[in-house]
Amino acid sequence: MSILPVSLLISWPKYQNAPQNSPLFNGDAWSLGGNGDYVPHEGPVIVPPPGIGGVPIQLAAGVGGGYVTTGPFANMTVNLGPVGGLEGVPAGPQGGLGYNPRRLKRDLGPALNKRYANYTTILNLLSQPNVDAFRLVSEGVPYTPEIGPHGGMHYAIGGDPGGDLFTSPGDPAFWVHHGQMDSVWAIWQALGGSSRYTSLGTGPYAHRTWTNDPPASLAQLSDVIDMGYAGESTTIEKVMSTVGGELCYFYL
Ligand SMILES: *[C@@H]1O[C@H](CO)[C@@H](O)[C@H](O)[C@H]1NC(C)=O
Ligand SMILES: *[C@@H]1O[C@H](CO)[C@@H](O)[C@H](O)[C@H]1NC(C)=O
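Above: the input record for the complex with 2-acetamido-2-deoxy-beta-D-glucopyranose. Below: its predicted structure, written as C-alpha cells.
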C-alpha cells in the first residue's frame, strides 16, 4: 500500500488529459466507477453569495454529465442534497437537507483538471513559503476564477452530488480527492520547518469562518473540531501532523 500515496500526489496532473480514463474512473471493476454517460451540457456556474460582490464564474464542462453506469458505483443512489451554489441547479427538498433519492452523476473531463491541477500547480503549491500563501494556491483567491486545485478538482469530477459544495461527500470520489489534498499538505509540511506543524497563519483562510466572512477571530490550535455523528471531537492541534497527535500515517 505504500506506493498508493505517491501515485496520489502525481495523480492530479498525471491523468489531466483524460481523467475519465484514469484507473480511478475508467469504470473497470477496480475503479471508483466510471464517468457519467455523455449528455450535451454547459459547464457549471459558481454564484458568489449575496452581498459579497464578484461575478458568477463560468467553468468549463466535462465530457460526461449523465448517470454513472459502469464500475462498482454504477447506478448508485444518492440521497442527500443538492444544497445549491451552482446557477440553474435547484436545491433538493428542505433546502437540500431532505431525503432526495436519485442516481449518481459525474462530469469528469480534462479542461478543469488541466486548468487547476496541472504539474505547474503542484510545483507552485509545494513551493509556497507559509501556510497563508499555501492556502491561497490550494483554495484559491476568494471569489475569483482562481479556485485552486481543491475547488478545481471538485468541479473536474462535478456532476451530482460531486458538483455541490455542501453534499459532494456523497460521491465516493470525494474521499480520494480529499486524500490528495491531505497528501500535498503533509508533503509541503515535511519540506519546511517545524512551524508548518504549528502555524495557522493570519490570512483570509486563517479565521473561524470561511474566508473570514462574516468577520471572525483567528482560529487557534486549541479550537475543537466537532465531528458530529462521524466520530469523536478533536482539536486542530491534534490533527496538524499525520504522525503526531492522534494520527499515525505518512506519505512516501
Ligand atoms: C445501470 O442502469 C442502466 C440503465 O438503467 C442499466 O442498463 C445497467 O444494467 C445498470 N447497471 C448496473 C450495474 O446495475
Ligand atoms: C496550470 O495551472 C495554473 C494554476 O495553478 C494555471 O495558472 C495555468 O494556466 C495552468 N496551465 C494551463 C495550461 O491551463
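Notes for the reader.
Residues 114-115, 118, 120-121, 124 surround 2-acetamido-2-deoxy-beta-D-glucopyranose (ligand 2) (CB under 6 Å).
The chain has one domain: 4-223.
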